[in-house]
Design goal:
Two copies of one chain form a homodimer. Chain A has about 350 residues and is an alpha+beta fold. Chain A has two domains: about 140 residues, 60s Ribosomal Protein L30, Chain: A, CATH 3.30.1330.10; about 160 residues, Alpha-Beta Complex (Phosphoribosyl-aminoimidazole Synthetase, Chain A, domain 2). Helix content of chain A is about 30%, strand content about 25%. In chain A, the strands form three sheets. In chain A, strands 9-11-8-12-10-13-14 form a seven-stranded mixed β-sheet. In chain A, helix 4 packs parallel to helix 5 and helix 7 packs across helix 10. Strand 2 of chain A pairs antiparallel with strand 1 of chain B, so a sheet runs across the interface.
């Protein structure tokens, strides 16, 4: 809502100012925050209109809508490889991408704590805008609320996305069949351990960088390489890690899984940090990795397509779905033994995303 | 994600249990919360699928999409006339409705504070589900995060909605023209003063009930009564109240406005509570009121349509848009004087929605 009258007000102090309750009150201060920060960073006609929502073209003929939402409460707000702004774009873009959809539009809702530095907010919003541009999505509408100091924690961001699902694409957690090949786009545990290393001030701090990235390009590369029906399941193994994601799929599809531990890529510094903290990388969150279950006849083509993409150079075939009435996920260890990999129980890494 | 294995776990204690960090961890506890609380209350096939998003039919031919989002941080969580659950449905349904859209789908994102009683969460989720059913929308996807005690405040809910905008409907804050008639669907200030009365334990407490309600039925009644082009602007005067909403419209459309104070309905107990607290009802939030600016030739038909609907029985014609290069909103007082009604400055009622 750009305004002649608002132009007379003193501009926001984006260097030294802080969030006040008035920024969430619906009045002049909120209008300034929207105009001088959000609408400028996300620059598009939908936001510039200043209405209560965005009017968007419907998807193409034969396409269905996909909708996904994610709240982001990551702590710390800034970490190696990203921040809550870029993460909040990647989180929802990836939820749409693993549904097989082309992400189009994002809505962003901010819950700000009174006293939060405007400079930090501006940095987060700029990062969000850059991540949205890189992923090819527009932030078309938003909302801002402010809570009193001590009733929030800096900034929480909920992003909700709309994507278009082309005809013929129907990946889903319930589509896996015994014999399907399980592929992984790269090494696991980077995001979770980047956050942990920074929180705990570990010496590994400098070496571990979050993998936070938008997966929609990688997903499009897969659909360009193999028939859509060959792609049974797509998932990004976030909270709960690879182990929990595979258990979810096993349960939804009514299959078991057998994985080869030696085939699952883990960076040496992530492995070391996990050992130090007593964590299993299989349960550590990722924010830029893709799990694919595909028909066995197309597994080589899927692997080649993953490896040909910058986000999948370390992709690997890590196992297969099996017929198992109990839906167990098992790992064959390097030494030839087998161990069960259950759902994550309890909480090992709060506020990882 | 209903699961044979999850069925073996002890069910959630929805009477005496409390939110633990594990409920946001992506593992078994979160799956239980989704299955036993959210999916059960919002019962639909999209949620039951347990995927990362919902696949939805696109709107009908010629229809555009509308997207709107709202974070809800209201305090207290339960108030006369509603709670954060019903409010979070009405807030986003109304944002879609005032864009002229038929609300279809909602996404719900929860940020929960560790230690929050599960019984309160269940009550909120049930209220949300009932409000969604009453408004004719489905909660198709969601997300849950948990923050440590002292880093949140019970529960925050962001709802994001998708609506379908029929061809020919194009209301917007920038569409008002000098001469347009300003109508209001009923008395103002009920929501804000219900919250304030409860917070301050005023004697009016029992008498003031929030007007929180879904406006999509009322909007459809208007479009059934007059040509779509006659409806220039629709808005729900929430944060900042009627005064701020009309200033926004004046600024967006480049017009002035003149209102008749005596024509603006205010309940006597709201008037009394406002006097006691030194508030102006024009700036107090509403959650179930509609502002309409329409072409003068159709104002009588709009008023009749409003009054024929249960949510508009006290509807009134309250003023008109004027040609004014300064975009001032003015009120003619009962005594014949005029006063300027500016944007809300500062914050009078934090966390009203």
């Amino acid at each position: 809502m750009p305004s002649a009258r608002l132009a007379h007000a003193r501009p926001l102090d984006l260097r030294n100012g802080r969030i006040e309750l008035a920024f969430g009150a619906g009045g002049r201060a909120m209008a300034q925050l929207i105009t001088e920060l959000f609408a400028r960073a996300f620059a598009n006609d939908w936001l510039a209109r200043g209405d209560d929502g965005a009017v968007l073209p419907a998807p193409g003929p034969g396409e269905r809508l996909v909708m996904a939402t994610d709240a982001h409460v990551v702590s710390p707000l800034f970490f190696r490889g990203g921040d809550i702004g870029s993460l909040s774009v990647h989180g929802t873009v990836n939820d749409l991408a693993v549904m097989g959809a082309r992400p189009l539009y994002l809505a962003a809702s901010f819950i700000l704590e009174e006293g939060f530095p405007l400079a930090d907010l501006a940095r987060i919003v700029d990062s969000m805008a850059a991540a949205a541009r890189a992923a090819g999505v527009a932030v078309v509408t938003g909302d801002t609320k402010v809570v009193e100091q001590g009733k929030g924690d800096g900034v929480f961001i909920t992003t909700t996305g709309i994507g278009a699902l082309p005809a013929g694409r129907d990946p889903g957690g319930a589509q896996a069949r015994p014999g399907d090949v399980v592929l992984l786009s790269g090494r696991i545990g980077d995001h979770g351990m980047a956050i942990m290393a920074q929180r705990e001030s570990l010496a590994f701090d400098a070496e571990i960088v979050s993998d936070s990235a938008p997966l929609n390009g990688l997903v499009e590369a897969l659909y360009a390489a193999v028939p859509a029906a060959a792609i049974r399941v797509l998932r990004d193994p976030t909270r709960g890690g690879l182990a929990t994601t595979l258990n979810e799929i096993a349960t939804q599809s009514g299959v078991g899984m057998t994985l080869e531990e030696a085939a699952i890529p883990v960076a040496p510094q992530v492995h070391a940090a996990c050992e130090l903290l007593g964590l299993d990388p299989l349960y550590v969150a990722n924010e830029g990795k893709l799990v694919v279950l595909c028909a066995p006849a197309h597994a080589d083509a899927v692997l080649a397509a993953l490896r040909a993409h910058p986000l999948g150079t370390e992709a690997a075939r890590i196992g297969a779905a099996t017929a198992d009435a109990q839906h167990f996920v098992q790992v064959r260890t390097a030494l030839g033994g087998r161990r069960m990999v259950d759902w994550l129980a309890g909480e090992q890494l709060p506020r990882i995303c």
